[in-house]
Write a structure and sequence with these properties.
The strands form 5 sheets. The protein has a 5-stranded parallel beta sheet with strand order 2-5-6-1-7, with helices on one face. A 3-stranded antiparallel beta sheet has the order 10-14-13, with helices on one face. It is an alpha/beta fold. 44% of the residues lie in helices and 13% in strands.
């Protein structure tokens, strides 16, 4: 049994293969996806952003394939910029995939003109773990009886990047699908799985005729329901010797599922729980209760009282928000004043619900697209596709109150001048005649904030 000095909850990121024993709540989906990938040569695996696709692949699918005699190639991606020394490539998406698959560390320039089928036919691994492009070694391996060679599974993660990245190379998309189909026809031992966000599935439809099976084998993973969330909360704690007391885990699930609407002042329980939220709250709960306190908590269950005293959900979500903002401020040239006001007035409505903001060519509701994308990468925002356009919103209603509370606290800690300017802006934001002055105020606030720092 593991000791409570470590944390059985991982926080806001994907599970790795080494954390397989900590991943719960997706057993049914894991079995069904594994069966489909084994029985079909090409599978499209899609789900909502943040639903846990990568975690399921890392902890369940890849180990399951290997236990069934499959060889799983390194995780592939089609995104990326050209490295130094490579000025031009035939197909940017094929090139990026080859660079991801080759683990030899050699000059990537040799893949600039290479086709996918030629690369895969010369990809070899002496230990079944590390793969490299080596035509000579592969030639020697071909002397082995083909019946002894295992079926290889190529998994391309975040495949929506073939749509979202390199828009100037749009002609390369169709060629990529043709090359993928050619590689599968030339090698009957090759299987492929493409994982992507559900809002980009329709964007792949024009390319389905380029594949032999038209991407007919598809698996949709529903968002985490409340029963699955209970397992994801209970089982890691039980395995670490600190089980939840009766109804304590249910209380957490209830709070995590709460939704708000403009029709009702009181939040109501929804059907689903966001996995990222669950991990953030449980991680914070465990840290507060057990880390560094082993002697005092050896025989203690996690009770409702513990949840109230040590695992306040609003505080955990507010801490997550503050951490995300700190990352953005470190990476991007944006004022903290402007960023917090963007959340208060664009992403949260006057009714205290989530607002949606349109992603323009360069900015999203006045905020640089780079900032919005980084916030999505941190699982604080998510995008929704509508009529070919992208809209951002908070990942869950449950973040609304913690964000508002965190921002109010931040403003109270600022100088009187900054607080007065914020109050004036809030009081006049409905007055259209003051829109110009408000824009001038934003610039002034940014200057004040820069001076304060």
């Amino acid at each position: 049994m593991a000791t409570p000095a470590s944390n059985p909850y991982i926080g806001p990121r994907s599970f790795t293969r080494k954390e397989r024993e900590l991943f719960f709540g997706r057993d049914l989906e894991a079995r069904e996806l594994l069966s489909l990938v084994i029985s079909e040569r090409l599978v499209l695996f899609y789900a909502q952003s943040g639903a846990g696709k990568s975690s399921l692949v890392n902890t369940s699918l890849v180990p399951g394939l290997e236990e069934n005699g499959r060889a799983v190639l390194p995780m592939g991606r089609v995104s990326g910029e050209l490295p130094a020394g490579v000025a031009e490539v035939d197909n940017i998406f094929v090139f990026n995939l080859l660079v991801h698959l080759d683990q030899s560390g050699t000059d990537p320039a040799r893949f600039a003109r290479m086709r996918l089928s030629d690369f895969l036919s010369n990809l070899s691994s002496p230990d079944g773990q590390t793969y490299s492009f080596d035509p000579q070694e592969q030639a020697e391996a071909e002397l082995i009886d083909e019946e002894e060679s295992p079926i290889c599974v190529l998994i391309i993660d975040q495949f929506e990047e073939i749509i979202t990245t390199h828009p100037d190379r749009w002609l390369d998309r169709a060629d990529f699908f043709r090359q993928l189909d050619q590689a599968m026809q030339e090698d009957p031992q090759l299987s492929v799985m493409l994982t992507l966000r559900e809002d980009y599935v329709a964007a792949l439809e024009p390319y389905t005729p380029l594949l032999a099976d038209r991407m007919r084998a598809r698996f949709y993973m529903e968002r985490m329901n409340r029963d699955s969330a209970l397992l994801a909360i209970r089982r890691p704690a039980e395995n670490y010797g600190k089980p939840f007391a009766k109804d304590a885990a249910e209380t957490l699930v209830y709070n995590l599922s709460l939704l708000r609407s403009a029709r009702s002042k009181e939040p109501r329980p929804g059907q689903y729980v966001e996995p990222v939220q669950l991990q953030v709250v449980c991680f914070q709960l465990w840290q507060n209760l057990f880390v560094g306190q082993e002697k005092d908590c050896q025989e203690t269950e996690i009770s409702k009282e513990h949840i109230k005293s040590a695992g306040n959900i609003d505080d955990a979500l507010a801490d997550f928000y503050e951490h995300a903002l700190a990352e953005i401020l470190q990476k991007c040239k944006v004022s903290e004043v402007v960023l917090r006001r963007w959340f208060d007035h664009k992403l949260i409505t006057e009714a205290g619900t989530r607002g949606t903001v349109f992603q323009g060519h360069d900015s999203t509701a006045g905020m640089a697209n780079e900032v919005a994308q980084l916030l999505e990468d941190q699982f604080l925002l998510r995008t929704e596709s509508r009529s070919g356009a992208s809209w951002y919103e908070l990942v869950h209603d449950r973040f609304v109150d913690p964000i508002l509370q965190a921002n109010r606290q931040w403003w109270q800690e600022q100088s009187a001048l900054l607080r007065d300017a914020q109050a004036w802006a809030d009081g006049n934001k409905k007055d259209k005649s003051l829109l110009y002055l408000n824009e001038k105020l934003k610039k002034a606030l940014a200057e004040v904030e820069a001076h304060r720092k």
